[in-house]
Amino acid sequence: MEIHKKRLLIMAGCIALSVTLTSCAESTREDKDSDNVVETISTVGSTPADEAVTDTESGMATEPVKDKGTTIEPLITKTGGLGDTKEAIEQLRGADENGQDAGISSYQNNTFLAIYAQDEVTKKNTALNVTLSFEATDTPRRSEKDAMREASSVIPSDAVKVKEYKIDEGREVIKYESKLLSERLRGWYDLDAANNPKSKSGAFIVILNHDEEGIFSVVVSAGNNP
Questions:
Q1: Residue 112 CB-half CA count within 13 A
Q2: Cβ within 8 Å of residue 16, ≥6 positions away
Q3: Could you report the per-residue pLDDT of 158-179, keeping only the tens digit for each?
Q4: Element (H or E) spanning 112, and its range?
Q5: Looking at CB atoms within 10 Å, which of 50, 89, 90, 167 has the fewest?
Q6: Contact (Cβ atoms closer than 8 angstroms) between residue 128 and residue 50
């Protein structure tokens, strides 16, 4: 399990670094022209509180962080995920299991990992990278249907699918756009646009990581560079 944790931490860190280096061009495997919006993401019909404990967990979540009088931003996802603030996520998923200097936050027995950044415009500590680690659960491999059902709960509720493509034999990418995410990460997208002419506000990607046995993790990240 420790090996799986380290593997996921390294992977999530690499994804975040790739997203931050906005001067890099989009993957050459993407289509040259942006496709039209074709499909709205399907979501599970239940409330955030109902879905706070998902089957990515292998045990009980840690005790949720209590509201100490600070204003908690409303969720833009179902169960706390991409574009949500750390405070809002921890209201549902419990306290961060990693130390402050870890660079990546861990929740629910290492099944949910998040990387936060302070947005320069909104001034909110917001998740710009989320990883669902199925390897840390009792069901370490998932079907594509099950993996996407889990992913639908941690992406913005207004997400619209734009395109999907394959990076290599072990990774598939689905690109989305979200107006809610564009507002939550206004500063991040402004910086991205200044360095990357192909940047589009509100764009994000879902990466399905798999082997011959099935999907072992899902990475959700702002931007369009896998």
A1: 31
A2: 115, 128, 129, 221
A3: 999 999 999 999 999 999 999 9
A4: strand 112-118
A5: 50
A6: no
Rounded to 10 degrees, what is the CA torsion of 48, 49, 52, 55? Answer: -90
DSSP 3-state assignment of 109? coil
Beta-strand relationship, 112-118 and 105-107: antiparallel
Sheet holding 160-168, edge to edge: 39-40, 160-168, 171-177, 203-211, 214-222, 125-133, 112-118, 105-107
Query: What gap in Å lies between CA 91 and CA 64, rounded to an integer?
Result: 5
DSSP string, 58-107: SSPPPPPPPP-SPPPPPPSSSSS-TT-BHHHHHHHH-S-SS-TTSSSEEE
CA 75 – CA 41 distance, rounded (Å):
17
